[in-house]
Amino acid sequence: MDSDFLGVGWTSPVTLDGKGQIQPARYEEAVRQSIRMILSTARGERLMRPDFGCSLHDLVFSTNSVAAIGQVISAVQESLIQWEPRIDVLNVTAIPDADEPNRLLIDIRYLVRTTNNLFNLVYPFYVT
User: IraD/Gp25-like domain spans which residues (predicted)?
Assistant: First the structure.
């Protein structure tokens, strides 16, 4: 089965099923959780792999400007291309949230290579 390449692993956060067993993340869900983990990990945060993660966290104190949005998009694209080989990043956009002026909504559209399925993920990012 082609989706075996996508993997099965622990959910993040770890969850239990109705029988008290650890519920695994399977296939495209494992990919989605991997993307979230890459984006939520600051470079240098992992001791044994200091280059893992996304430089998005370096932009937390940026102003909500066009230049900062461009840097956010670039940081997301670069980290996903480097750390998630199971996808093709099709498009990344970031727009200010109308309800919260210090929040950008990062919309990531990607293709899972082995299944050829399209997905999108919206990741909230806060700036000052």
Answer: 26-116
User: Which fold, 2-126?
Assistant: Nuclear Transport Factor 2; Chain: A, (3.10.450)
Q: Average pLDDT of the chain? A: 87
CA 34 to chain centre: 7
- What CA dihedral angle connects 110, 126, 51 and 82, to 10 degrees? 10
Give the global pTM. Answer: 0.81
Judged on CB neighbours under 10 Å (0-12, 13-18, 19+), 76 is buried
- Token readout for 4 is 């075996």
Q: Who's near 34: CB < 8 A, 6+ residues apart?
A: 83, 84, 86
Amino acid sitting at position 24 = P
Q: 3: which 2 tokens?
A: 């989706």
For 19-64, the pLDDT digits (tens) are: 877 766 667 888 898 899 999 999 999 999 999 999 999 999 988 8
